[in-house]
Structure formats: structure tokens, C-alpha cells
Amino acid sequence: MLVTLDGVEHANAGVRFTLIAPFDTIATVALKKPRRRKRDSTLRAALAAIAGARPARGMWTVAKARVDLLAYQLEPALAVLGGATRVLLADGVGLGKTIQAGLILCELRARGLVDRALILTPAGLRDAWAAELRERFGLQPAVFDQSAIANQLPGLPVGFNPWMAHAIVIASIDLVKRPEVLAAVEQAPFDLLIADEAHHLTPGSDRGSAVDRLASRTPWVVLASATPHSGDQAAFDYLTRLGECGDRIAIFRRTRADVGLGSGRRVHLLPVTPSSLEMRMLSGVESYARAIWLGRGRHDRGARLVAILVARRAASSAMALERTLTRRLHLISGRHDPAPAQQALPWDDADEADGDAPAELLGLAGLDDGAREIRLLEDLIAVAAAARSSPTKIIRVARLIDRVREPVLVFTEYRDTLDALTEALCGTRKIGALHGGLPAAMRARIVREFNHGGLDLLIATDTAGEGLNLHHRCRLVIDVELPWNPVRLEQRIGRVDRLGQQRRVHAIRLLHRGTVEDTVLAHLERRRLRAGAALNLTTEEWLNEDDIAAAALGLVEPPQRIRPLLTSVTVGAAGAEAQRLVRQRDVASRCGARPDRALWSPTRHRFNASAEMVVLYTLQQPGSQGRIAGAACRALLIQMRGGPATRRDWQAWVNQLDEQLESLIATASISYARDVAAQLDPLRVSAGGRIDTARDRLRRSWLSELQASLFDGRAERLAAARQQALDRLDAALLRRALSLTPALPGVAARPRLIAVWPLER
């Protein structure tokens, strides 16, 4: 027999032990007899018990977590307790989506509904997630990468799946999507799947397919993304259908204005006049890119991407353009790729945020006349090499940094430009560089040094554009170029414009005067910012990369689009629940933990025939597997008739009351049991229905015909192994379904005496 013990007091909150009888000795601990105390002590115990109640649909773990009690952050967890099984956390950048996902995890764990959880993030955010869960919620997740899995194997039994060795596992989606890894993960039962930065889960991608497969067999699914809708309705529909098992997704989309934080940021577009060499380079590249766009690009998507690539790199820096065009010249001429070999990294740390172009794309022909294109490339490379001597944007960045004399975060799209910035700015400040070529541990160290004052300047590609908290010291973001994807700008400024930022945030966005950046991109960015302000940040004018490219290279007016409003779920009880939790925290800080036995206080006089005694008790309603489904405080008012005359008589009277409490409140216990069952019905029905659908799909997906081998039993062994894995997953889903079933009929809530004291009117 397995017996699971969950810690509920401050010293063991969140700790779970599983005992195996008869190998572990399990003995019932008798409750201690009530103890006489002064009235103040008795009232403090009563107050602590009242504050520590566990409403069936309320939050049990938040008061002890290290989080601010913000009502909007409670809504997703309350919605899950109310029956939501798939949730999309789509709040604006910096509003605490990680905290909200952590609250869902903790609340389901506290009720015994989640035993094992899998959290998928970009590689660079794994350690940040682990730190948040440890520091805020007291959880101890395991962070998996290639080396961590290899280190796990020697300590596990032969054939044991390492993904089943921990209750909470955090891993990179790029690790899990690999076929050999996904095969192992699929065989490990999880109760909750959390996928961060979910906008990367796009149709036809390995990431999206992997998450969909895992989510379809998981009872609860949480997706998180500040930018879930990029304007592609098909991609958004795909995202909201991930893991669907006949259930609808609950979307939470709140802006800073929605939650009462307003906008504490200022955005400045700063034109920079290019040097004569830079202007010649930019004009030549613009003509070259436009010729590709209006020529082969009319019918070739690859050619359009090449045009966008060279135009964007020219706007970033001469170094970025020179390196790109040099690679392109070698590739289309049939020579070797001159790009330096990428440093060997763990294969799960793939990062696509440095703007690196694959050779397959960069080697595509742009013009019909190949010889002419080679001559153009040679001329542009020479001009770019000369323009490197006067990088006006980099010079302006240096002046800005010298002027502000405070920590600065500088963003660029390209690693080549990052190299140029680092080379130009070294010696003036303590610099850290953050890009996708760094191992996750080194990225974490650089972020830590920046946040703790070890670095003054952090130069980053969009590797740092997601998930990192850089607001502790920094409030200034400089964008070296305007990305052709406006979503990236919001992600970048969101690294410092977050909950906890105490100062006004500033973003300075550089652009070359008299170029496409000035005539098209800056115009579109100003229009987007005006649209956001006019709509009180509820919606933003949205233009995707193709729209901007068409305006920049095709000389057409971009379409007027308004980002679709996402209807956010609202939970009306969140405000009252936040107030209850505030009171609970306050009481806990003043009254301490609830005593391990009931307390009582006598009347002031030894004999008072008209005394009224308050009897406070708790009702704990068990679920089907003995876990607590709800706990509430109730009170009786007992009229004393010929009350006790001595202390011994008082003690005997309270002891007798404690022993007879269950019979005295039998009706109340039954009524509370019914009330808890009614409150949890939506959760049971929705989660149970999802589990039933998942089990049915799982069985059908694994069924396959067995073709026996003529020479050995490999096919039979493979089929047996697959069936064993299927049985294990199905058994886990069945256990979770059983944990949702209500207590047996007639199982009333268990009462426990808390305090007895005289009522003073």
C-alpha cells in the first residue's frame, strides 16, 4: 500500500513523502487534549485557523509564496480550479506570466492533482525558470540538458527512463523536439505541461509538433507568450489548438493599463546622418535589394528573403553587411563558405535569435544575370569595407553611453554588429556580450553580473529578448537598428519595463537618416506607437515582416491592420481572493503557526450560569484518495447552564466537547461535504472529460499491425515495449482520473476542535 504525505505547515510546505506499507511503519498520531491558555492566546489560535482555511475553489499556496498578491495574477489558477484545462497566458511583457504558471503548478500539486510536471522553455531560460520556482515557491525542479541526462543515467536502474526520475523537469524545447529525446519523453507520464514563449510553436515546425504530441496526453496544459498573435491568424489558431482534447482554451490577455500600471516608458526615435561612404553603401544595397524584390522575388519566396536579409544587415552595420555579402559572393560563385565554423555546443542549445543566415538561403540567386550580380556584390563589398572606418551608429551609441552614465542595454539583430560594438566600446566600460553562441551557463553568469553591478553595459542580440529580468539596475534600452518585425521591439523593452521597475523606462531607437529606415520604418514605427497610445495600449497596429518589406522594397503603402483583440477570461472572485490572502499573510505574521492542539479559555468567573461559549472548529473534506479537498472554519455558540466551577471541571467539559464534536455537528459536516463536491464538479467534469479523450486517442494512436519476422522476434519485442509504454501512460491517466472523483457517498467532513472561549457582549 502506498501512503502519500503532504507537508502543510511552514517548515514542510510543498514537501511530499511516499511511504510503502508494510516496509515503512505507519502509525496514527493521537491528537493531544485541549490545553487551557489565556484568552489572547486562544483568540490568536482561532484567528490563525480562520485565516488558514482552504476553500475548495480558493488558493492554498499563494500566501506562503514570495510573490506580490496581485488579483490579476491569481485569475489563471482560479480558472483552472474552476475547470479550465488548457490556458494561454498572453499578458504583456513583464506582467508575471512565469509567476502565474507557477501558481497553477503549486495549486494543482497542493491538491494532489499534479504529481509530475514538464516545463519547456527556450534554452537560455531554463535556469531562470528554475530559480523562480525555487525562490518564489520553494519547489526543487530538475534542469535537463544533454549533460544532465548523461549524468543521471549511471545512478538509475538499467532501462529506467531519466525523464521519470523527477517530479518537476525543466528542459529546452529544442532538446525535447529531437526524435530520439521525444521518444523517451513521450513514455514518461506528466500531469501538467508548461510551454514558455509559445509563439515559437508554429504550424509545421518540430517545436509545435513535439508540444502538440505531449500536450495531447497531459491533463493540464499551460502556454505562455506575450506575443501570441503575430498577425498570422492560421498560426494563432494552431497555437490555441495545441493539445486540444475537446476542450476550449482559456486566454488571459492583460496589458499594463488593464492591471492599473499604466505606461512608464518613453520611446525616442533618433535619426543618425550616415557618412558619405555609408550613404553610398546604403543606397547601393537598397537598389540591389529592390531589384531582387521586384524581379525574381515576385515569384520566388527565397529571393524575397535574400532581399530582406541584405537590406536589414546594411541598416545594422557595415561589418554585418560586408561579412554577409562576402559569404553570398562565395556561395553563388561555387566557392567554399567562408563563415567560421560554429563553436561546438550542446545540441539542445540551438538558438535562432542572432540573425544567422543558412548557406542554403544565402546562396540563392537574386538576379537573372548571374555575372552582373557577382559584379554588384564585389562593388558593394568594397564599399562596405571602406564604410567600416566611420560607423556613425556605433559612434552615436558610444556618445549616448558616455552621456547617461548608468547601466545600458544595447540590442542589435546581428552577431556581426555585436562584434563591431564590442570592439568599438571596449575600454570605456565593463562590457558583457550576450548572443546565441554562448552556452546557457555563461549567459546566466553574464546576466547575473549585469544585475549585480559587475557590468555597466550589456550588448545583446535577440537571444536576450525573451524571458530575462534585467530591470533590477537598468532602465535604458538602445536599439541599434529598427527590426522589420515590430514584435521584437516590445520583447526588447520588456526586459527592463517589468513589474518591480521603479523608474521611468527609456528606449532609444537609432535609424539612418535619408534611407529606408527613415522614410519607411521610422514612419511605420511612429504610426504604430500613435495607434497604441490612442487605444490606451489595448491594441497595437500590427505589420508583419512581409508588409514592411513590401513597403521598403516594393514601394507600396502597407495595409492598415489592427491586431485582433484577444478576449481575455475574467475571474470575478480574484479580487476578493487577493484580499483574503492579504489578511491571511497579515495574520500569519502576527499570530504565527496554528498550535498543534486545541486551546480553551474559561469565563472570568468560576460560575456563570448565563455564559455563552464560542466553539471554533475546522472541517476537512477528504477526496476519493484521502487528500484534502477543502477545509473551512465553523463555529458553535453554546449556552452554559450551570457551568463548571473548577479548573478540573472546565478541562473535563472541554475534553468531553472535543470527543462529542463529531456528533454535535453531524448535519454541518454532511452539508459541507455536499458543498465542496458541488464546487469541484466543474473541475472534475472538465478534467475528467479531457483525460477520457486523451486515453482514447492514446490507445488508437499506438495501435498498429504486427508483422512477425521470419527470422527473429524483433517486431514482437518492439510491439511489446510499445504496449508496455502505452499501459504505463494509460495507468497514469487513470490514476489522475481517479484522483478527481468525489469522496464516497456518506463520507462527511472530519471536524477538529480549534478553540473554545467565552463570548463577551
Task: Describe this protein's structure.
This protein starts with a strand and ends with a strand. β18 (612-622) and β19 (628-639) form a beta hairpin. It has 3 domains: 33-52 and 594-702 and 720-761, no CATH class; 68-252, Rossmann fold (3-Layer(aba) Sandwich); 265-553, Rossmann fold. The chain is built from 24 helices and 20 strands. It is of the alpha/beta class. α11 runs antiparallel to α12 and α23 (666-702) runs antiparallel to α24. It has a 7-stranded parallel beta sheet, with helices on both faces. A 6-stranded parallel beta sheet has the order 11-16-15-12-14-13, sandwiched between helices. The protein is elongated, with a radius of gyration of 31 Å. 44% of the residues lie in helices and 14% in strands. The longest helix is centred in the last third of the chain and has 37 residues, at 666-702.
Low-pLDDT ranges = 341-349, 534-540
* Main CATH class of the largest domain: Alpha Beta
Overall average residue pLDDT: 85
Q: What share of the residues lie within helices? A: 40-55%
Count helical runs: 24
Structural class: alpha/beta
